[in-house]
Amino acid sequence: MVNIYGQSVPETKINIHIHSDEEFVEEANSDENGKWTIAFDTTPLEIDFHTAKALFLVEQDENVIKSGFSKAVSFHVGKVGGEAACPEADLNHDGRVNLTDFSILLFYWNTDNECADQNQNGNVDLVDFSIMMYYWTG
Q: What was the pLDDT predicted at 21?
C-alpha cells in the first residue's frame, strides 16, 4: 500500500496516473482546501520503480477542463525482508565502518551484491555510499 496525496483546486475531481507496465488511473476528490489523498494497493504492480502524477478535471458549462499533469513522483515496490545481510554498512562485520568497508563497496559497485546494496534496490550505487557515510566510524 502506498499513500499518494496532493493539493489542487478545491472540490474538484482528481485523476491519479500510476505508471507501470500497465497504467492505472485512480480517482479522488479534493476537499474544500484542495487537499486530496488515496491509498493505492500496490499488489498488481511488479517489483520495480514506478511513478505517479495527477491532474484535475472541472466541469464548466457542459465542458470538461483538464489541468496539465503535476510533477511526477517516484516510488519503489519491493519485498519486505528480514534483517539486512550487512546491517549499518559494516560490510566486513568487524564492528566498524571504515576504509575497508568502503573498498568492499567499490569492489561491488554497479552489481547486485546483497551485502553492499544497503538499500536493497538491486544495484550498488551512490545511495549505498551515502548510507555508508551515515554509519561511518573511521
A: 86
95: left (phi over 0), alpha (psi -120 to 50) or beta: left
Dihedral-angle region of residue 66 (phi above 0 means left; psi in -120 to 50 means alpha; beta otherwise): beta
DSSP labels, 56-96: EEEEETTEEEEPPP---EEEEE----SS-SSGGG-TT-SS-
| pTM for this entry | 0.58
Mean pLDDT over residues 53-77, rounded?
92
pLDDT at residue 119, rounded to an integer = 86
CB 92 within 8 A of CB 105: no
In the predicted model, is pLDDT for residue 31 greater than 70?
A: yes
Length of the chain (residues): 138
Domains for the chain: give ranges and CATH numbers.
2-77 (2.60.40.3350), 87-135 (1.10.1330.10)
Residue 4 neighbours by CB under 8 Å, 6+ apart: 16, 18, 26, 37, 38, 40, 52, 54, 73
Average pLDDT in the 110-122 region? 92
d(CA 44, CA 26): 13
